[in-house]
Structure formats: structure tokens, C-alpha cells
Design a protein that fits this description.
Blueprint: E1 11-12, H1 32-53, H2 57-66, E2 75-80, H3 86-94, E3 98-105, H4 108-120, E4 127-131, E5 144-150, H5 159-169, E6 170-181, H6 187-209, H7 212-224, H8 228-237, E7 241-248, E8 253-260
Parallel strand pairs: 1-4, 2-3, 2-5, 3-4, 5-6
Antiparallel strand pairs: 6-8, 7-8
Length: about 270
């Protein structure tokens, strides 16, 4: 049996056309357009740099998140800031009960690379790709059992707005899973980690991608992002319950997990 051809175009979502799925200065405090432009520029180098900069640990981190998925029922999944699709592919390959998945990203160049990988792994019969803003997806309320986000929430101009959007999109009793960089709690490890981020990351990013600002942003965004306690608090304000934050690899990354209960609702 042959698979249908994967659609050549991406769905573009906005609030007027809803679709149902079948440098610090550079980004923080700026618009979604600045985010889109930066990731469009670095898209060809993004995967290689992430693998090198994490010493290959990003594969393990995504596997751990994918393995937390409930395998006992059919699931509709949304992967926000899907980028080139690494987390989305890991989810689908390890969870055959995911019958439909949406990969959404604000960068068209990222989605072009994602599409090629989805086709390569023969997963296109279970995937829809959407070009949209994670904080304003244009998708219908309560459409998904699970919403995931890997290394993306740190790059959103408004974290609270994005969390509220995730809450809106989840079905009752749905689950959000967020994989994000964090600051290690151990003082010595944190000092070494930030030394690495401040010196090695921008240098390697500049050598490979020739975009100095983009990878200088990486180290400052990690250092200045919310602590695990503060992000957990924002998740609670967005209406989530049963919130957990699991540190990995000496605390340089963290998996956040929370549920949307029937009584949960965002705080005003």
C-alpha cells in the first residue's frame, strides 16, 4: 500500500480563518516577527548546532519526554514551536497510539525542513503542519489530548499568553509537556554551564551559521529565563494543575508536566 503524497503547502492559521486539524534585544520584549525572522535565518544550521551544543544529549531529552506519553488510548497531539520536527518525530515513532499530530511553527523555513524529515520517516499520513504563532494559533478550543513544546516557550515574546493558549487548546484532562533549558541549582555546575554558554556557544554558532546575534541570544535567554518555580507558578496561573518539573542532566534542562482539569481555568 502506498501512502498519499504529503501536501506540498503548509496551512497558514490566523484568528479570522480557523482551522480544525484532520542579543537579548533581538527577541525578548520584541514581536513574534522578530522571532520568525531569526529562526528563518538559522534554520539550515539549527539541528546540527543543537546536537553539537548539547553533546548529543538533546536526543535523550526528547526520548524521555516522548516516553511519558500515555500509550493506552488514541491521542490527538499538538507540538508547538515544532521547528524541524525532532520532538514531533520522536513522539510519533514511540507512540503509535498518536493517530493525528499537528506540528506548528512560526518559521516557514523551519517547517520546510520539518516536512522533508516527516516524509523521510514516512509519518506524513499522521501529521499536519501549520504555519502560525504559538501564542495565537487560530485552532479550535479543546482540540488536543496533549500539547508539547520543546525548547520553544523560552522564545515566545509572551510566555503567559502562550500558556493560556495551550490551556485553551487542551481537552479537559489533557496534558501539557514542555521541554526547556534551565539554570542548574548547583552553584558550581551553574557557573561552569554559564561560562560554557557565554564563551563556546556564540563562537560555535558564529562559525557554523555566521549569525552571531542568534546564538548570543541563546546564552542570555537561558540565563534570564524563568526559574523552574516561577514557570511552574505561571502554569498554575494559566489554569493548570498537578504541575511537576523534572530536571535532567544536572538541571540544564527540565521537563514540565501539567494537566488541564475540568475545574481548572486561567486566573485573571
Amino acid at each position: 500500500m502506498t501512502h498519499p503524497e504529503f501536501p506540498p503547502e503548509y496551512t497558514r492559521c490566523n484568528r479570522t480563518s480557523k482551522q480544525k486539524h484532520s542579543d537579548r534585544r533581538l527577541l525578548l520584549g520584541s514581536s513574534s516577527e522578530a522571532v520568525r525572522k531569526m529562526f528563518d535565518r538559522i534554520a539550515p544550521f539549527y539541528v546540527l548546532l543543537n546536537h553539537i551544543l548539547s553533546f548529543g544529549m538533546d536526543f535523550s531529552w526528547r526520548r524521555k519526554l516522548a516516553n511519558t506519553i500515555n500509550k493506552n488510548k488514541k491521542l490527538q497531539v499538538l507540538d508547538l514551536a515544532t521547528g524541524t520536527g525532532d520532538l514531533l518525530i520522536s513522539l510519533l515513532k514511540r507512540n503509535h497510539n498518536i493517530t493525528n499530530a499537528v506540528g506548528l511553527d512560526i518559521s516557514e523555513n523551519m517547517l520546510k525542513l520539518c516536512r522533508k524529515k516527516i516524509v523521510k520517516h514516512k509519518l506524513f499520513d499522521r501529521v499536519t503542519l501549520i504555519l502560525a504563532d504559538a501564542a495565537d494559533t487560530g485552532l479550535f478550543d479543546e482540540s488536543f489530548d496533549i500539547v508539547t513544546m520543546g525548547f520553544g516557550i523560552r522564545n515566545t515574546p509572551d510566555v503567559s499568553k502562550t500558556l493560556n493558549e495551550i490551556h485553551r487548546l487542551l481537552k479537559h484532562d489533557g496534558t501539557v509537556l514542555i521541554l526547556e533549558f534551565a539554570s542548574p541549582s548547583n552553584r558550581i555546575i551553574r557557573k561552569l554551564y554559564f561560562l560554557y554558554l557565554h564563551n563556546f556557544v556564540p563562537l560555535l554558532g558564529r562559525l557554523i551559521s555566521r549569525d552571531r546575534n542568534a546564538y548570543r541570544y541563546l546564552n542570555t535567554s537561558i540565563e534570564n529565563f524563568y526559574s523552574t518555580d516561577d514557570l511552574s507558578s505561571l502554569m498554575q496561573k494559566a489554569g493548570f494543575s498537578d504541575i511537576s518539573a523534572t530536571p535532567l542532566t544536572f538541571g540544564v534542562v527540565c521537563i514540565y508536566k501539567a494537566n488541564k482539569t475540568s475545574t481548572g481555568s486561567p486566573e485573571n
